[in-house]
Amino acid sequence: MTEKTPTLDDVAAHAGVSSATVSRFVNNPKVVAATTAERIRAAIAETGYIPNLLAGGLASSRSKMVAVLIPHLTDSMFNDTIESMVDELAAAGTTVMLGLTGVSTERTEQLIHAALSRRVDAIISTGPISGEIAEMVRRAPGLFIQIWELPEEPIGIAVGFSHHDAGCDVARFLLSRGYRRPHVVTAEGSRARMRRDGFVEEWRASGGTAPSEAAVDIPSRYGHARRIFADMRRLPEMPDVVVCGSDYLAQGLVVEAQAAGLKVPENLAVIGFGNSQLAGEMRPTLTTVEIDGARIAREAIAAIRRHGAGEDMGERRIDVGFRLIARESA
């Protein structure tokens, strides 16, 4: 059950000042004496108070606004999912605030605080979650939705899939196709590491030798491929397949391999992740893992509607699964 939402009066009582002083601080911190400002700031943190920036200050009114937070737009595998959600929400008369968190929990916290201040009906997030963020959204009346992952205990609800299982599935597929020397390229993010761990565990459990590995910054992109390929050529034995954390990186590896005179998949196979539009249109077409972004969008929107209507939210972990699509590159 949602706790009572802290009010401006609660902050005032906690800080030992008047409600008017807290209001002045919220609107312009510089007009309040430094020592008083510090007490108010501490009281806000301790009570979990979120200022209401809605016009008219009606805390009980619905904003018809949803915040969507993603790490980045460039080479983003979230784009199709986000576009589906924006289209559906806009058709229902809901305004969408889009925020770019990067990989920083501090930036994520700032954006969530800004969204809660505007009393959004829901926050849909793919970004990193700290303990402070979790506590902030638990106290808020709006719905918090994590997408593209399935934590054991979601803060609000989660709509996603098991990245670990996806990694295992890729390993089983490559073993079944006779590959024996994989090179695993992992982006520096928790979800990518879960896929990597699933792949390596399944590969070793099935009798495969430890794969060679490389790491890239987030977002993994086309431009990382040149360095990855050059490093692979210096390995004692050339891999027979490259497992990439995104389709964009996989496309870059295909281009680098072909530029070096290798045939894909005869000399080097490549597998991506995300099933972006380019995956089925490039040559060779790209073997990849597809996530049903449209279903993620539908489930998130349905949850927002149930929450707004005060209905039972039902299952808090909604597994949309994944599908490995075998094409020409592996």
Describe the biggest sheet?
Answer: 6 strands, parallel
CATH superfamily of the largest domain: Response regulator
**Tally of separate helices:** 11
Q: Note the gap between the termini.
A: 49 Å
Strand order of the biggest β-sheet: 2-1-3-4-5-11
- Low-confidence parts: 55-60
What is the class of the largest domain in the CATH system?
A: Alpha Beta
Structure description:
This protein has 330 residues and is α/β, with parallel strands linked by helices. The chain has three domains: 1-49, 434 Repressor (Amino-terminal Domain), CATH 1.10.260; 61-161 and 295-319, Rossmann fold (3-Layer(aba) Sandwich); 163-290, Rossmann fold (3-Layer(aba) Sandwich), CATH 3.40.50. The protein has eleven helices and twelve strands. The protein has helices spanning 8-15, 19-27, 34-47, 79-91, 105-117, 131-139, 163-176, 190-205, 225-233, 247-259, 293-308; strands at 65-70, 95-100, 122-125, 143-147, 157-160, 182-187, 212-216, 241-243, 269-271, 288-290, 317-319, 323-325. A six-stranded parallel beta sheet has the order 2-1-3-4-5-11, with helices on both faces. Strands 7-6-8-9 form a four-stranded parallel beta sheet, sandwiched between helices. Strand 8 (241-243), helix 10 (247-259) and strand 9 form a beta-alpha-beta unit. Helix 7 packs across helix 8 (190-205) and helix 9 (225-233) crosses helix 10. The protein is elongated, with a radius of gyration of 23 Å. The relative contact order is 0.11.
